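Attaching the record inline, Q. Sequence:
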Amino acid sequence: VTPRDFVIDLGSGDGRNIIAAARRGARALGVEYNPDLVGLSKRAAVAAGVSDKATFVQGDMFAADISKATVLALFLLPENLVRLTPKFLDLDPGTRIVANTFGIQGWDPDESSRAGGDCAMWCSALLYIVPAKVDGIWRLGDGELALTQNFQIVTGTMKSGANVLAVENGRLRGTQIRFSAGGAEYVGQVSGDSMKGDVKGRDTGIWSATRARP
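Structure, as predicted:
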C-alpha cells in the first residue's frame, strides 16, 4: 500500500486496517454497520493523527460503492465474500483484494502468506488480483481464439485454418495474460477488447487479438 492507493475495508470494525493504510499515506475508507464502532474508529484515527486520510461511514457493506478502490482489506465470513464476489470481479483489473483467513469461494489466491511472531490465530493472508475479462471469442490474425475464464484461470482453443490447438496453462494476473498453444508461449497485456504481446517457441514474434464477441 502506497500514497497512490485508495483502500476500502468492508465491515471495518475498530478501524485498524484503515488506520494502518492511512499511516502509509493512502486514502482509506471503512464501511461499518455498527455506529458505535464507527465512532470508536473515528476517535482512533484522530489519536493516530490520520483523520485527514482515514474516513469511516456507517452503512451496509453490500450496498457500498467500492468501484474506486485499488485495495480491499477484508476480514469477512465466507458467505459474505460469496455475496460480494460479483462486485469484486467488476473492479478494475489489477485491484488487490487481501482477505484474512477466509478465502473467496472458487477463486484460488494469487499469493498467500502467514504471519509469524506471536500470531496465534487469524494469521493467514490471501491475496487476490482482480483479472481482466477475456471470456469469449477473439480474432487472432487469420484465426480465432476461443477463451473460457474461471476467475484468473483461462482455457480454450486456438483455431487457424483446419488446425485447432488447445489453450493450456492460461492465467491472468490483472491485465497480464499468459498461455501456451501448439508449443508456443504467449504473454501479453489485455486492454478492454484488445490484447497484444510476445510469442516465443516454434513461432517467435508479436501477437495481437481483438474481441469478436463475448
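The chain has a mean pLDDT of 96. Helices lie at 16-23, 35-48, 78-89.

More tomorrow.
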